[in-house]
Fold:
Amino acid sequence: MAEGYAVDVVHDGTEGLHRASEGIHDLVILDIMLPGLNGYRVCAALRAAGHDVPILMLTAKDGEYDEAEGLDTGADDYLTKPFSYVVLVARVKALLRRRGQAAGASPVYVHGDLKVDTAARRVFLGEDEVTLTAKEFSVLEQLVLRAGEVVSKADILEHVWDFAYEGDPNIVEVYVSALRRKLRPGLIRTVRGAGYRLETS
Structure:
Protein backbone atom coordinates (compact mmCIF):
# COMPACT_ATOMS: atom_id res chain seq x y z
CA MET A 1 0.00 0.00 0.00
CA ALA A 2 1.32 3.45 -0.90
CA GLU A 3 1.03 4.66 2.71
CA GLY A 4 3.72 2.25 3.86
CA TYR A 5 1.47 -0.41 5.41
CA ALA A 6 2.20 -4.10 4.88
CA VAL A 7 -1.02 -5.61 3.53
CA ASP A 8 -2.16 -9.23 3.27
CA VAL A 9 -5.03 -9.84 0.82
CA VAL A 10 -7.35 -12.85 0.77
CA HIS A 11 -10.40 -13.33 -1.43
CA ASP A 12 -12.84 -15.41 0.61
CA GLY A 13 -14.25 -15.20 4.10
CA THR A 14 -13.07 -18.59 5.36
CA GLU A 15 -9.43 -17.86 4.51
CA GLY A 16 -9.83 -14.30 5.81
CA LEU A 17 -11.07 -15.57 9.17
CA HIS A 18 -8.13 -18.01 9.35
CA ARG A 19 -5.57 -15.29 8.59
CA ALA A 20 -7.15 -12.70 10.90
CA SER A 21 -7.31 -15.27 13.72
CA GLU A 22 -3.51 -15.49 13.73
CA GLY A 23 -3.55 -12.24 15.68
CA ILE A 24 -0.63 -10.61 13.85
CA HIS A 25 -2.54 -7.79 12.14
CA ASP A 26 -3.06 -4.26 13.46
CA LEU A 27 -6.27 -3.77 11.46
CA VAL A 28 -8.72 -5.88 9.44
CA ILE A 29 -10.64 -4.49 6.46
CA LEU A 30 -13.63 -6.72 5.66
CA ASP A 31 -15.82 -6.64 2.58
CA ILE A 32 -19.32 -7.74 3.54
CA MET A 33 -19.94 -9.49 0.21
CA LEU A 34 -17.23 -12.16 0.54
CA PRO A 35 -17.65 -15.67 -0.87
CA GLY A 36 -17.76 -18.44 1.72
CA LEU A 37 -18.30 -16.61 5.00
CA ASN A 38 -19.60 -13.07 4.51
CA GLY A 39 -18.03 -10.11 6.28
CA TYR A 40 -20.65 -10.01 9.05
CA ARG A 41 -19.95 -13.65 9.94
CA VAL A 42 -16.17 -13.23 9.84
CA CYS A 43 -16.41 -10.17 12.12
CA ALA A 44 -18.75 -11.90 14.56
CA ALA A 45 -16.49 -14.98 14.69
CA LEU A 46 -13.41 -12.86 15.43
CA ARG A 47 -15.18 -11.03 18.25
CA ALA A 48 -16.60 -14.26 19.67
CA ALA A 49 -13.06 -15.64 19.79
CA GLY A 50 -11.90 -12.62 21.78
CA HIS A 51 -9.95 -10.78 19.06
CA ASP A 52 -10.07 -7.00 19.64
CA VAL A 53 -8.31 -5.98 16.41
CA PRO A 54 -9.96 -2.89 14.85
CA ILE A 55 -12.31 -3.93 12.02
CA LEU A 56 -13.39 -1.68 9.14
CA MET A 57 -16.35 -3.00 7.13
CA LEU A 58 -16.75 -2.26 3.41
CA THR A 59 -20.03 -2.68 1.56
CA ALA A 60 -21.87 -1.64 -1.56
CA LYS A 61 -25.06 -1.56 0.44
CA ASP A 62 -26.34 1.62 2.02
CA GLY A 63 -28.77 2.41 4.78
CA GLU A 64 -28.97 2.49 8.54
CA TYR A 65 -30.14 -1.14 8.81
CA ASP A 66 -27.01 -2.54 7.19
CA GLU A 67 -24.82 -0.19 9.18
CA ALA A 68 -26.45 -1.23 12.45
CA GLU A 69 -26.01 -4.90 11.55
CA GLY A 70 -22.34 -4.39 10.88
CA LEU A 71 -21.84 -2.57 14.18
CA ASP A 72 -23.78 -5.18 16.13
CA THR A 73 -21.34 -7.86 14.96
CA GLY A 74 -18.51 -5.84 16.51
CA ALA A 75 -17.12 -3.76 13.64
CA ASP A 76 -15.41 -0.50 14.65
CA ASP A 77 -16.21 1.46 11.51
CA TYR A 78 -18.15 1.16 8.30
CA LEU A 79 -17.47 2.49 4.79
CA THR A 80 -19.98 2.39 1.93
CA LYS A 81 -18.79 1.98 -1.68
CA PRO A 82 -17.92 3.89 -3.70
CA PHE A 83 -15.38 5.69 -1.52
CA SER A 84 -12.18 7.57 -2.25
CA TYR A 85 -8.73 6.24 -1.41
CA VAL A 86 -8.14 9.35 0.71
CA VAL A 87 -11.19 8.59 2.90
CA LEU A 88 -10.16 4.93 3.26
CA VAL A 89 -6.66 5.89 4.39
CA ALA A 90 -8.07 8.50 6.80
CA ARG A 91 -10.32 5.88 8.42
CA VAL A 92 -7.47 3.39 8.67
CA LYS A 93 -5.23 5.99 10.32
CA ALA A 94 -7.98 7.04 12.72
CA LEU A 95 -8.60 3.45 13.87
CA LEU A 96 -4.89 2.75 14.29
CA ARG A 97 -4.34 6.05 16.13
CA ARG A 98 -7.14 5.29 18.60
CA ARG A 99 -5.68 1.87 19.26
CA GLY A 100 -2.27 3.43 19.87
CA GLN A 101 -3.70 5.99 22.26
CA ALA A 102 -4.69 3.20 24.62
CA ALA A 103 -1.07 3.08 25.79
CA GLY A 104 -1.10 6.72 26.95
CA ALA A 105 -1.84 7.88 30.47
CA SER A 106 -5.43 9.08 30.39
CA PRO A 107 -7.87 9.73 33.18
CA VAL A 108 -10.70 7.57 34.44
CA TYR A 109 -14.10 9.28 34.37
CA VAL A 110 -16.66 8.26 36.98
CA HIS A 111 -20.22 9.29 36.31
CA GLY A 112 -22.63 7.81 38.83
CA ASP A 113 -22.30 4.03 38.43
CA LEU A 114 -20.64 4.48 35.02
CA LYS A 115 -16.83 4.32 34.92
CA VAL A 116 -14.93 5.08 31.70
CA ASP A 117 -11.22 4.25 31.74
CA THR A 118 -9.80 6.08 28.72
CA ALA A 119 -6.33 4.58 29.13
CA ALA A 120 -7.41 0.93 29.17
CA ARG A 121 -10.44 1.78 27.00
CA ARG A 122 -12.70 -0.15 29.36
CA VAL A 123 -16.21 0.72 30.50
CA PHE A 124 -17.95 -0.46 33.67
CA LEU A 125 -21.59 -0.07 34.69
CA GLY A 126 -21.68 -0.85 38.38
CA GLU A 127 -19.59 -4.00 38.83
CA ASP A 128 -20.14 -5.20 35.26
CA GLU A 129 -17.76 -4.51 32.40
CA VAL A 130 -19.47 -3.44 29.17
CA THR A 131 -17.77 -4.41 25.89
CA LEU A 132 -17.81 -1.60 23.32
CA THR A 133 -16.37 -1.29 19.83
CA ALA A 134 -13.72 1.39 19.27
CA LYS A 135 -16.24 3.79 17.71
CA GLU A 136 -18.84 3.19 20.45
CA PHE A 137 -16.17 3.94 23.04
CA SER A 138 -15.13 7.14 21.25
CA VAL A 139 -18.73 8.39 21.09
CA LEU A 140 -19.25 7.62 24.79
CA GLU A 141 -15.94 9.32 25.61
CA GLN A 142 -17.14 12.57 23.99
CA LEU A 143 -20.31 12.43 26.07
CA VAL A 144 -18.63 11.60 29.38
CA LEU A 145 -16.01 14.35 28.89
CA ARG A 146 -18.92 16.82 28.85
CA ALA A 147 -21.34 15.01 31.15
CA GLY A 148 -24.47 17.05 31.83
CA GLU A 149 -23.86 19.25 28.76
CA VAL A 150 -25.49 18.92 25.35
CA VAL A 151 -23.02 17.57 22.78
CA SER A 152 -24.10 18.23 19.20
CA LYS A 153 -24.09 15.60 16.48
CA ALA A 154 -21.61 17.81 14.57
CA ASP A 155 -19.23 17.82 17.55
CA ILE A 156 -19.36 14.04 17.80
CA LEU A 157 -18.73 13.64 14.06
CA GLU A 158 -15.80 16.07 14.20
CA HIS A 159 -14.10 14.42 17.19
CA VAL A 160 -14.85 10.77 16.51
CA TRP A 161 -14.54 10.45 12.74
CA ASP A 162 -11.32 12.49 12.31
CA PHE A 163 -11.86 13.44 8.67
CA ALA A 164 -14.23 15.34 6.39
CA TYR A 165 -17.09 12.88 6.84
CA GLU A 166 -19.30 12.88 3.76
CA GLY A 167 -21.70 10.11 4.76
CA ASP A 168 -25.04 10.26 6.50
CA PRO A 169 -24.75 12.24 9.78
CA ASN A 170 -27.40 9.87 11.18
CA ILE A 171 -24.51 7.44 11.73
CA VAL A 172 -24.21 9.12 15.15
CA GLU A 173 -27.74 7.96 15.99
CA VAL A 174 -26.78 4.38 15.11
CA TYR A 175 -23.92 4.48 17.63
CA VAL A 176 -25.97 6.22 20.33
CA SER A 177 -28.67 3.55 19.91
CA ALA A 178 -26.02 0.85 20.29
CA LEU A 179 -24.72 2.52 23.48
CA ARG A 180 -28.23 2.73 24.92
CA ARG A 181 -28.73 -0.99 24.33
CA LYS A 182 -25.42 -1.87 25.95
CA LEU A 183 -25.58 0.59 28.86
CA ARG A 184 -28.95 1.88 30.07
CA PRO A 185 -31.72 3.39 27.93
CA GLY A 186 -32.12 6.61 29.98
CA LEU A 187 -28.40 7.32 30.39
CA ILE A 188 -28.03 9.20 27.09
CA ARG A 189 -30.80 11.72 26.52
CA THR A 190 -31.65 13.11 23.08
CA VAL A 191 -32.13 16.89 23.14
CA ARG A 192 -34.18 17.52 20.01
CA GLY A 193 -32.50 19.81 17.54
CA ALA A 194 -29.42 20.15 19.73
CA GLY A 195 -27.69 16.81 20.32
CA TYR A 196 -27.17 14.37 23.16
CA ARG A 197 -26.57 14.68 26.90
CA LEU A 198 -25.17 12.15 29.35
CA GLU A 199 -27.57 12.47 32.27
CA THR A 200 -26.09 13.39 35.63
CA SER A 201 -28.64 11.56 37.75
